[in-house]
Amino acid sequence: MDHHSKWKRFLNEAVKVYVHGYVKPESAFYTIAEWEEMANQILALQKEGHSIRSGEIEGPDELIELINSFYGFQLYTEVDRYELLTYKNVLDHIEDFVNHRVWGLRKEFGEYFPDINRLRLAYFYSRGDLEPYLLIDDEFTEQIYGSTNNPKKLLHYTTQSGVERIQRAIDRGNPFDISSYTVAERPFFRKDSNLIMEFEGNVRAGFRSDVKSYSVDNNRKCVNLYRLGYPGEDVDNLCINLGDDCNGGLKTSLWNEFIATPIKILDISPA
Q1: How far apart are CA 111 and CA 238, in angstroms?
Q2: Per-residue pLDDT reduced to its tens digit, 35-68
Q3: What is the 3-state secondary structure (H, E, C) of 117-180?
Q4: What are the angstrom distances between the C-alpha of 11 and each of 22, 24, 46, 187, 224?
Q5: Element (H, E) at 4
Q6: CB of 124 closer than 8 Å to CB of 78
Q7: DSSP 3-state helix, strand, coil percentages of the chain (rounded to 5)?
Q8: Angle at 224 between CA 167 and CA 26, to 5 degrees
Q9: Is residue 5 a contact partner of residue 77, using CB atoms and an 8 Å limit?
Q10: How far apart (Å, rounded) are the C-alpha atoms in residues 115 and 1?
């Protein structure tokens, strides 16, 4: 099966299942060291005279396979999905990434985490560009909170079918992580989400303001690394203390956000 067919099948089978169609593949996430190794291989091929500058991959099968391994989803699924994203856009991103951006990742984002080298990230389309997303896996949760057991009462905007889907997942013992909140200063932006579900959830990550997240096909979520900044100089957007950090005033006048695995639905009320 070629890469195009592989990602088409992913789009047809995985994307339709939950959370507004924005499901990302876990296979797209790599550590910084793995991204650097990919970049070094492309730089070596670039030195031999091969190129992706023209909007086409001009080089041996090794170069094609390398790019498809790391960016196949973006090239063959996201390009088809988003009108403003083109094949050339992705190749231009890759060129800039291997020549410059990858070498600044630790300096740009490392201060937010105890050990960014053990975390995995990927690039996905967002608002006109490919932006970095961090996988919220057990490694992340252990680093930030010291445990993967972090129960908390939370709220989630949803629909009746959404409630039923979440309950089925809980009953089957295979729940998927969702975005939730405890404080909101403006209505949710999806008008069809007309219910508020109160639930007990196992928190994977907490943020002072909305962080822009996508679902991943391993039932976890990923968050936009550009959303880790927060107004002012005293704190960033990542909540270290889940009991206190995320429940105060919102400098963004939006809502806070918790990535959590539903444990038990407690109540349903109109939004």
Answers
A1: 11
A2: 999 999 999 999 999 999 888 999 999 999 999 9
A3: HHCCEEEEEECCEEEEEEEECHHHHHHHHCCCCCEEEEEEEECHHHHHHHHHHHHCCCCCCEEE
A4: 10, 9, 32, 31, 21
A5: helix 3-13
A6: yes
A7: 40, 25, 35
A8: 60
A9: no
A10: 37
> If DSSP codes are grouped into helix, strand and coil, which group holds residue 22?
coil
135 in Cβ contact with 120 (< 8 Å)? yes
Q: Per the structure block, which two tokens stand in for 140?
A: 């992340």
CA proximity to 206, closest of 234, 175, 183, 172: 183
Residue with tokens 């391993």: 218
**pTM of the predicted protein model:** 0.90
What is the spatial distance between Cα 135 and Cα 224, in angstroms, rounded to a whole number? 9
Model confidence over 149-208: pLDDT tens digits?
999 999 999 999 999 999 999 999 999 999 999 988 776 666 788 899 999 999 999 999
Segments making up each domain of the chain, as ranges: 3-136, 145-270
Structure tokens at 179: 């975005």
Pairing of strands 213-216, 23-24: parallel
Q: In what order do the strands lie in the sheet with 178-180?
A: 151-158, 195-207, 257-270, 178-180
